[in-house]
Design goal:
The protein has 161 residues and is mostly helical. A 3-stranded antiparallel sheet has the order 1-2-3, with no helix packed on it. A hairpin with an 8-residue loop joins strand 2 and strand 3. The longest helix is centred in the middle third of the chain and has 14 residues.
């Protein structure tokens, strides 16, 4: 209602009244975090190696879904144990560490799937996996596991050790 009134006052040229309206604050909620057992169950739920690897990579490197599907083979540096994230949120590049365990899993995945340009091949016109596909993988993994918490793909970015 506040934003509707603000819009109406701007249309009628009464900007002073629009500015005096209060702004609404969003509730600050803590994210839902999965414990170690739940994470282990989630990562073991998918039948396909590709799905297990993409979920564990998102968790271990703290990636956004869009960042994961944009990863190219050339962005993974096994020598330095780093992942180069290109043009992510706010068009910024960043480099994140690649764990030894995750590097082993990625090497196994690359040997089995033999991806070409993108790390995770899919049905998009350019050959990438889709964000909707990633969300589906997460939903299916949650269905197969016994996790009852309200989590989504982005929840994997939040973890406590």
């Amino acid at each position: 209602m506040v934003y509707g009134l603000r819009y109406y006052f701007r249309l009628t040229g009464d900007n002073k009244r629009a500015i005096n309206l209060p702004s609404l604050k969003n509730e600050a909620k803590l994210p839902v975090i999965l414990n170690r057992n739940e994470l282990r169950e989630l990562f073991n739920a998918p039948a396909l190696l590709k799905h297990r690897i993409v979920l564990t990579l998102i968790y271990s490197a703290g990636l956004r879904g869009q960042e994961a599907i944009n990863l190219k083979l050339s962005d993974i540096d096994f020598q330095r144990k780093t992942i180069h994230i290109r043009q992510s949120k706010y068009k910024k590049d960043r480099v994140v560490p690649l764990s030894v365990f995750m590097a082993r899993g990625l090497k196994k995945y690359i040997a089995a799937e033999n991806p070409h340009i993108y790390l995770f091949n899919g049905k998009e016109p350019d050959g990438r996996y889709s964000v909707r596909g990633l969300s589906w993988v997460m939903r299916e993994a949650l269905k197969k596991s016994k996790i009852k918490k309200s989590v989504n793909l982005h929840s994997l970015r939040h973890y406590v050790e």
